[in-house]
Amino acid sequence: MLIHPMPDPIAIQIGPLAVHWYGLMYVLAFALFIILGRVRIKQPHIAVLGWKKEDLDDMLFYGMLGVVIGGRLGEVLFYRPEYFLHNPLEIFMVWHGGMSFHGGFLGVILAMYLWSRKAGRNLFDVLDFIAPLVPLGYAAGRLGNFINAELPGRIAPDTLPWAMQWPGIPYPVHPSPIYQMLVDGILVFIILWLYARKQRPRMAVGAMFTLLYGCARFFTEYFRTPDWEVVWLGVPITSGQMLSLPMIVGAIALLVWAYKSQVMGTPPTKARPANT
């Protein structure tokens, strides 16, 4: 059995100024967005749409606001509303962890809607462009959860080689943040990046990300201690699974619509000249 390394959550301390590992993981996520984005805009089927580095930088600013505001509000509203009702000042203490992916997902969609209106682009083209840039950033966030010893897993058998002694828990558990980093983050990135390397119908890449993440999250939730769960037809469903189900259903519908539109002759995307 492994023991959680319990690293100091503060990466750098200079007098009263403390830089937390959790915050650095967000910096890493945003850096990965820029690096992957600059690779993506050079892909031939993306380049013809007129994407520029300036667009990438601008979208990152909007996306950062969507991730942080949406992620925190999602944590407050979806997972721990009673706690934050009694501790309202902690809503702003994002360095302590506690960011909901589903809230951040909605926040980014809203942010990209605002940016697409400003830039004069189709929202689905924007979402298709940024979707492959997201999963590795998500993986970085889950690594931050692990460093903070957040999101412990369910009880794991002693015979499991990577069962882990988690801080404050007297029995071995699954290291669920690592599972989600590997499956929801890195595996989804690999599949989606390969899928997005070719021209796809409008909406298809964004929908594929939503489907892949929804299915991956539904699976990895079986190893994570749920924030809350309900029993439906005798089957327990966790909070994360409940929030992932609409993603799965909506993504399937969008994929069918995207490919059906292509078959019927509706152009999936239209080349857009670069802004001058």
UniProtKB/TrEMBL annotation:
The keyword Metal-binding does not apply. It holds the Pfam family LGT. Pathway: Protein modification; lipoprotein biosynthesis (diacylglyceryl transfer). It is a multi-pass membrane protein. GO terms for molecular function: phosphatidylglycerol-prolipoprotein diacylglyceryl transferase activity. The keyword Cytoplasm does not apply. A 1,2-diacyl-sn-glycero-3-phospho-(1'-sn-glycerol) binds at residue 142. Keywords: Cell membrane, Membrane, Transferase, Transmembrane, Transmembrane helix. The chain crosses the membrane at residues 20-39, 60-79, 91-115, 122-141, 178-196, 203-220, 240-259. InterPro entries: Lgt. It is found in: Cell membrane. Its EC number is 2.5.1.145. Belongs to the Lgt family. Catalyzes the transfer of the diacylglyceryl group from phosphatidylglycerol to the sulfhydryl group of the N-terminal cysteine of a prolipoprotein, the first step in the formation of mature lipoproteins. This is Phosphatidylglycerol--prolipoprotein diacylglyceryl transferase. It comes from Janthinobacterium kumbetense. The lineage of its organism: Bacteria, Pseudomonadati, Pseudomonadota, Betaproteobacteria, Burkholderiales.
